[in-house]
């Protein structure tokens, strides 16, 4: 596994990871952080979503071993369009690094993305983004438990 940059290492170290977690990374290309997370969550799983097919291809090339072991998967989708797949379990934690929809650069997309992420997390699930020391938690909208994981 390639060494993480000091910045990415600090971000991964700051995530409250534990074995068996399901983690969602938003905008994860080229996949360095996702690979590090995959190795820290044991028999858990990390799904990396990215709006760019080129980005997803980079992740798939760089994390082929983790994908083959069932630790990591990818999906080409924008955060504001993300929904859980049929029979897909919700995620315990989500994180994003330099994602415009979540860091304030694209407010409208951010509103939609936060709602989609909230609906894909377990009750009490949290979203972390860069820009803190090194991370900050993002407040998510409250989702009605009866509609939490409905696909739209």
Give the tags.
single chain; 152 residues; alpha/beta; six-stranded mixed β-sheet; 5 helices; 6 strands; 31% helix; 24% strand; disordered C terminus
How would you describe the overall organization of this protein?
The protein is of the alpha/beta class and 152 residues long. It contains five helices and six strands, in the order αβαβααββαββ. A six-stranded mixed beta sheet has the order 3-2-1-4-5-6. Helix 1 runs parallel beside helix 2.
Write the topology of this structure.
Layout: H1 6-14, E1 22-26, H2 32-40, E2 45-50, H3 53-62, H4 64-68, E3 72-76, E4 91-96, H5 107-120, E5 121-130, E6 135-138
Parallel strand pairs: 1-2, 1-4, 2-3, 4-5
Antiparallel strand pairs: 5-6
Condensed summary:
The chain is an alpha/beta fold and 152 residues long. The chain is built from five helices and six strands.
């Amino acid at each position: 596994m390639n060494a993480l940059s000091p910045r990415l290492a600090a971000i991964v170290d700051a995530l409250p990871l534990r074995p068996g977690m399901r983690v969602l990374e938003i905008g994860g290309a080229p996949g360095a952080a996702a690979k590090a997370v995959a190795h820290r969550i044991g028999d858990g799983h990390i799904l990396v979503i990215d709006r760019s097919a080129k980005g997803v291809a980079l992740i798939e090339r760089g994390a082929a071993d983790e994908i083959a072991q069932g630790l990591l998967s990818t999906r080409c989708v924008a955060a504001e369009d993300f929904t859980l797949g049929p029979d897909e379990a919700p995620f315990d934690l989500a994180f994003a690094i330099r994602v415009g929809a979540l860091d304030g650069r694209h407010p409208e997309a951010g509103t939609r993305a936060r709602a989609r992420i909230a609906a894909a997390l377990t009750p009490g699930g949290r979203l972390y983004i860069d820009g803190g020391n090194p991370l900050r938690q993002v407040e998510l909208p409250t989702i009605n438990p009866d509609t939490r994981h409905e696909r739209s």
